[in-house]
Amino acid sequence: MDSASVIGNIARVIPSFAYDRIRWRNGLGWTREVAQGRLESASPVAEALPSDAWDWRLSIAEIDAEAPFSRFDGIEREQMLLSGEGLRLHGDGIEQELRPPHQRWRFRGEDALVGSPLDGRVEVANLMWRRERVDTTSWHRPLVGPMVIFIEPGSTWLVHLIAGQGMFADASGLGRIEAGDTAVLPAGATRLRHVLEGGGEAWLMRLQPR
């Protein structure tokens, strides 16, 4: 099973070394695909989705030099700076900077934006979701002691550990999570509870069906 696949309602921790490194859609950069998946209870779209289409996708872009972003129609995006001295996003009348340590910003997949590193190579986490089917909320939080995550039926949470280390202290069997790893936590038909203990900081993303 490759890192970018999410099968059914299986919770798992994806180690950073398992991410698939692929070209951007426009061929002008590189990204590491973390995971992608469907929310089966989400509202249907005007046109039927292909069987391999995703409702959400998380990846980490590697940006060494100025390059235009790929276009994704019907998609909302949120980016968080993970490393480097900052990234300037500009185009379509938009001017936005992602500054250290971990500034983030949302924009539309249709926006014709160019990413320009401010001072050398940067890495940026990139969450995308289909706006007609998914609602997304995210939080950048410190991990100090136990963190309890309640997942409603039909929803999926993603936990990307930016720094530190942790352990899922529940019956899930997920075990340890290290800096750079990502936990994918789907609920299926029943409400679930996960407990993450440790120290560091995390980006938490809640994906809910519309």
From TrEMBL:
Q: Which Pfam families match?
A: HutD (PF05962)
* SUPFAM superfamilies listed in its UniProt record: RmlC-like cupins
Q: Which InterPro entries does the record associate with it?
A: RmlC-like_jellyroll (IPR014710), RmlC_Cupin_sf (IPR011051), Uncharacterised_HutD/Ves (IPR010282)
- Protein name, UniProt field: HutD family protein
